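User: I'm curious what two different proteins look like when written out as structure tokens. Can you demonstrate?

Assistant: Sure. I'll show them one after the other, since each token string lines up with its own sequence. Here's the first protein:
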Amino acid sequence: MLLATPIHSRLRRLRRAVSWALARLRPGPSTVAAALGCLLVGLVCGTTAAGGPRRTGGEVAPDWTGAWSVSSQRLSTGWNPPTGRGRSPRTVPAPSPVPSPVPSSVPSPGPSSVPSPVPSPGPSSRPSPGTTGPTGRPATRPAAPEPFPVDATLRMLVRPTLGGSAVRIRLANTFGEGPVTFAAVGVAVAAGTGPALEPETSRAVTFGGSQTVTVPAGGRVLSDPVALALRYGQDLVVDLGVSRHQVTVTGHASAGFPCLAAQGNQVGEGTGAPFTTRLSSWLWLEAVDVVRDPGVGDAVVVLGDSLADGRRSGPAFDRRWTDLLAARLNRLPAEQRHAVLNQGVAGNRVLRAATCCGANDAALTRLGRDALTQAGTGTVIIAVGVNDVRDGASAGSVIAGLSQLAAQARAAGLRTVGVTLTPFGCDLGCPGAEVESVRAEVNAWIRSGEAYDGVIDADRILRDPERPDRLLSAYDCGDHLHLNDAGNAAMAAGVDLAVLDGTAGGDRAVR
């Protein structure tokens, strides 16, 4: 193990292990000794505090890492807003008999093979009545939800940002008002870009050995490992057979990949023809993990707003800057490769919950749930704050909030990368000089590197050099705030990859 893992990858994991240990030990003479013990064990066994290789019974356990994830929101099953980015399912032939899904799983690495609620970051991860968290459907949602069968199968396509030799999925009922029961769950490799799947790759997904699982209100559950090899660039089909659910559900409001529904149990159906009801949200599916190849780097989580979520970024979710960054990384040698987990959500703010664009928690509330509990994570990119400044927050309050995000991530043993706030000025009806001065003050603080291990200067990458309070017109989708495809490409190309693995600090000089 010592020789098989690149030295910089081992050191990065050891740094997390020691940080994790120090954060949990009481101060005293034993603290240093315990930290040195972590260091020695890590050098010999490759131990990591967050999902890396572990030795169990003399064998190295699978090295799980997050490969795809979304930020959960409170949704209604009747709310499916048009996103303008979804790909229409291709025409498929009439159904033909296909083999039933064959249960197949790899040996369990230990306790994670049972249906295990994912550790909660604390009570703040689920807003209670009377807090500033989301409390219902915005007025823009339809008064009456459209029909959504109780006994139905959801088929959702996702594109993991890293390949692997096995997969597992996480389901969430974070905002549900009651339990949700999944009578059957399956995964498969997609056949092209539509709802059809490759029948020979169809696998049943189990939870503690059972094909049925009930997730309580506020709960999350991790599946057993499934032996399914997946290459980067392949889409994964996830089928959820829903036998009981509530009107208020947990999901992500804008899914750019096909999300469809069919009546009855269609888990593992090969052609995709029964899936005639189109949805525009991912429902209940929160994450996909893979067993990464030896030497591959830790996952990178992007905690962001609509600029990360890809609002107005084109007809498919693979055009977001995070997806293009993942494509860059997957062309590199294994030790420079990282999964990129997009935890962007439209309207998100550092300090307060949002009720637009699908209600979502403030970044300070959702950090633990959306970033710190992702498997195999080594770096958190903090890309929020624009909406706070647009809404009139002071520079001091935004800086304090961003500092707290960075401190919490570091306390969990993760590297932190700050992202400067991009321009949002325009000709008429936009924030004036006072708000622009707040943005400039926050950006100067981010560039200083005071709270971060590295910096991505998105402002420098995307602004108009002649009018620094505005996006470059070539990158502007038309609303002077969000990026078009060219803007997303520029952002992805402008990221110094050394920032992601700690070999450089990025854009720290004020420009």
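Here's a second, unrelated protein for contrast:
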Amino acid sequence: MPKAFSEEFRADVIAAVRNRTGSTASVAASFGVSSSCVQRSGLSCTTDSDI
């Protein structure tokens, strides 16, 4: 079973993607997860309504 991420962790990743601190892949790497994990889990959403 995949590791569950805390709401705080998810919020940090979402903020980094929204702030365009880098590509999805580089943001994911900086948080120690794969870019596909970020994309699959919806962490790369761009609006609050997507959350």
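A detail about the second structure: The chain has one domain: 7-45.
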